[in-house]
Write a structure and sequence with these properties.
The protein has 316 residues and is an alpha+beta fold. The structure holds zinc ion.
Amino acid sequence: MSSDGSDASGEETPIDGQQEDEWQNIDDVVQDRRAEYIIKLGDEEWQYEAPIDLNISKMTRIELNPLMWYNHDIVPKKMKITNTGYTVILSAKWQRERPYLIDGPFTGKYVFSQLHFHWGKNEMVGSEHYLDGCCMPMELHAVHFKADYLSQEAASREKDGLAILVYLFRLLPSPNPTLVSLVDGLSRIQEAGTSTRLSTSEALVNWTRPFAGDYFLYWGALNHGGEKQRVLWLVSREPIGIAQEQVARFRTLYDVNNQPLLQNCHKLQDRCGRSLFHVNPSGKCSYSLLPVPREPPPLTANQIVDMIENFQVPDL
Ligand SMILES: [Zn+2]
């Protein structure tokens, strides 16, 4: 059958084509409804606080459309880190559109706002989320907000405004080269309220490794002095590698009272019977957290589009 739905005899055979289209449409509707269901679930479950212990054997498996990543591979025009007195925030400006996510559990476009870190007094107590009852050395949060609300602040007042990507760290024997520039920058922001520009050619993709599936998903509130913000959490099963001496550099910072900033993790909360999803599971499910990946990050959606657009048929 040719691509226009007619066969070699020239007679049209629209039934197969139509059926295929209908199935495609039904599939899209089902996937859209699942994303809508996740967002709606937030109405009941968002008030239970984050962070929690994540255990893969106690999760509901769910299939969602692959999460699509755009521009996380583009090197920013400017990038800076700031010691807020509570954490280190990495923020950036891009020449063109900033990184964003679509599909997966989302019913819209979620734009990158900032990423920041959580750590503890030692490597045994550095992560906010626990995995199978264990705390990890550090944790990275990449905050995204729904583009419709224009800013993170405005989005934080909405019921579907904020999504945070979570990456846990695992200790490696040698320093992670993609963290060197950032960790070196910490010596220039020792005091609370100070910032420094990072002269780096790193793109976000080096820290926020894209995942299309095989991640954990749940609703949990962030408590800011009694005021709760509604957050959809997406936890990567692939950790980031870091050396012990790199973690230790975060503890050399000072807080607003000029005291060493030794820990900044929220207290672990009860699950309280809320839904926990394992999205598009892979086959490897013995432990919740996977080993540190060795291969380069997977391509983002815009890299794939670029490849297709620039593909040239070789001359034969
Ligand atoms: Zn955080």
